[in-house]
Amino acid sequence: MPLRIEDYAMIGDCHSAALVGRDCSIDWLCWRRFDSPACFAALLGTSENGRWLIAPLKPSSKVSRRYRPDTLVLETEFQTETGIATVVDFMPATDGRADLVRIVSGRSGEVKFYTELAIRFGYGAIVPWVTRAEDGTINAIAGPDRMVLRTPVDLYGEDLKTVGEFTVHAGQSVPFVLSYGPSFESAAAPIDPFKALESTAQFWRDWCGRCPDVGSWTGIVKRSMITLKALTYAPTGGIVAAVTTSLPERLGGSRNWDYRFCWLRDATFTLLAFIHLGYNDEARTWRDWLIRAIAGSPHQVQIMYGISGERWLPELVIPWLAGYENSSPVRIGNAAAQQLQIDVFGEVGDALFQARKAGMKPSQRAHAIRSVVLDHLAAAWREPDEGIWEVRGGPQHFIHSKVMAWVAFDRAANDVDFEVRGNGAGRRDQQKNALG
Q1: CB 159: neighbour CB atoms within 10 A?
Q2: CATH (residue range 5-192)
Q3: Domain 209-428 has CATH 1.50.10.10
């Protein structure tokens, strides 16, 4: 049975993300991308659908957790009758690798731990073939996927799971490193988990250190910005709306959607947050992703795309997962990609204008897109659409959509005025320089 949604914390590496429960069970993870099939899917089913638990063997009297300051490194502390220990979880922010590191450290006394690893590829359906190398490395393969677990703890197989018990004493640390890669390639080389912890924490501190001081809100703003950064797919700049699928709008209801894609509306708000706080590199990367994604006929502009700009996002139902607290169906993909939502033109137009005002160098392709989009919108704004609520009962006329169409034209007019004023100032400066 999964925990309450608010009892999960996210870790990630700007390629994918995992959800770690308050009980230190990782119940959701898609590798190698946010939208890849889950290899831990207990969030939407049971432990038999894949999870990774590391927790005290006996119940704890107190559990507390926190992110280490200005990082996405999660630390969970367990207080037991015999001692205090912590579990540190993170995903190293490195290019070309997919690793998940867990380090169990003793604080006082001793604590006995239990670990249970149930790898289930294909959204909790596929049990891998698991073997053990001479050095103790656990190797799990099914189809195109491979996961490798390295740890000094003695592990053994039981009921199609990899389990083990160990004791951690004060001052002692026990590492676990789980790595993913294609099954047709050699297993990923081992990494030093403690050096990875230092470099990952430094990566997030350096990135977070660029956030300006905003008074008493600084800590909250930094934490929010870290979360937005973690939702960014580093290779393309696309920003996903969420790292999960099918968490219900209402328990027991059927409005369970896949949000592991890039909505133009949602990502636009993120872009504005980046711009307002001076993260222009992230804003520029997203703008370039946007321009690539919507390239083509304005009649074909979608409200959402895959993280690399994919347009075809067919919606399927996974029948073997019961859903979060039995809220079914569990959906993969999102049919809303084919909806008409006129308001996105206004939101995108506003975002591009704000980027220009912030000093971002304009894109020639963005200029070309603006003109053809406005020609299309001049007629399209009169049509009914599915609107911001993404209704599935047929198109309707929504005031919000009409207003945002006006915003698209308004921002385009302001952008032209901005260009004219900017060029005029440039000519005045040239004349002034010529006159000495």
Answers
A1: 8
A2: 2.70.98.10
A3: yes
